[in-house]
Specification:
InterPro entries: GTP-CH-I_C/QueF, NADPH_dep_7-cyano-7-deazaG_red, QueF, QueF_type1. The chain is an alpha+beta fold. It is 16% helix and 27% strand.
Length: 153
Amino acid sequence: MTEDYSGLTQLGQPTALPRNPEEAVLERVPAPHQDLRYCVRFTAPEFTSLCPLTGQPDFAHLVIDYVPGEWIVESKSLKNYLASFRNHGAFHEACTLDIAQRLVALLSPAWLRIGGYWYPRGGIPIDVFWQSGEAPQGVWIPAQEVQPYRGRG
């Protein structure tokens, strides 16, 4: 069976980065093997946003795991969406949870979790974790295994 991807607006063509997450277009495609349960992982080790108060850059290592239902996220649109946070001012918690909620709304996955491993701000790393519920039985979901921040000493 050949899928129709004609409705996609970013894949396979030059695409400008969105100015902010609200303008970013996230796209989806039908999940392959909808009869199987499997985990999809996206890792963004160089995620960047701005502190909403100081305008200084914040950096995170994001890990997004999900078990698809009918849809998977189109990866170029996800990359552009994540890049749109570069000039967006929001606290770590808001960025992490907004990404999770937007993906859940788009995909209606069987399960999703996100780990936001943020680098220190003011001497304290702020890590943010969320998941949509219990992981489905019988699906191999590896540990995120992002090393916690270790200061000197």
